[in-house]
Amino acid sequence: MRQLPAATRPTPITPAPHPAAVFSPPDWRLTWADEFNGTSVDGARWRVRNNEHNPNEQSCLTSRAQNVSVSGGLLHFKAQRENRTCAGYAASWTSGYLDTIGRMSRTYGRVEMRPAADPTGDVPGHVAGLLAAT
Predict the structure, then answer these.
(1) Where are the beta strands (DSSP E) in 72-114?
(2) Contact between 34 and 113 (Cβ < 8 Å)
(3) Distance CA 85, CA 51 (A)
């Protein structure tokens, strides 16, 4: 992986402070949360995809710490330019992917997340999204 010169390296992302209380109807209650306070992804809550390829992506999905890690109360995804073959697909990128398939799903409710994208804009793909359970 190429290294940017020190003068052009992006500064690390500082997590935004938790927002002030947001209005919630009085009968709503928290049913699922993950603040990523540990040192690794909680496998009981998340499925970390490994050695997979999604047709709409240009990367091999791995569970390696180089691509998916937890530290400082944050979940980190890191796409890396490297050649790797997975699921019969020869990719020039690796990245991480988590989902809750088989672990959690909701029909109704509110979802809150605080994703932060790569400040250089140099990483392909998306950081966070919601998918239907079907």
Answers:
(1) 74-77, 80-86, 89-95, 98-99
(2) no
(3) 8
Give the whole-angstrom CA distance, residue 38 versus residue 71.
7
Decide if pLDDT at 103 tops 60: yes
Has residue 129 got a pLDDT over 80?
no
Question: Which residues, in sequence order, are CB contacts of 92 under 8 Å at separation 6+?
Answer: 58, 81, 82, 83
Distance of alpha carbon 84 from alpha carbon 128, whole angstroms: 23
3-state secondary structure of 6: helix
Beta strands 89-95 and 59-61: pairing type?
parallel
**81 strand-pairing partners:** 93
pLDDT of the residue at 134: 65
